[in-house]
Amino acid sequence: MLTGKQKRFLRAEAHHLKPIFQVGKTGVNENMIIQINEALEKRELIKISILQNCMEDKDTIAEELAEGTQAEIVQVIGNNIILYKESKENKTIQLP
Fold it and tell me: What residues does the CRM domain cover (predicted)?
């Protein structure tokens, strides 16, 4: 689990990131989870946007993605979800 201090640090790091995935009308699927997992391994910290036509609750989507990828939810703000997962090979973020 991330501490409050670590989450604050990651939120600051994620501020300038652009969303690289979008969750739409179909919600979360297996293929999306696989791709997000690969992106997390490369980047450690990613932003995902939820489109207007998505019927599911954003907190539910965040939970599904975090569970499927074993990542931590840093923040759900507006229509964006920020996920963090420590990389095995490409560790670049040093948590406080």
Answer: 1-96
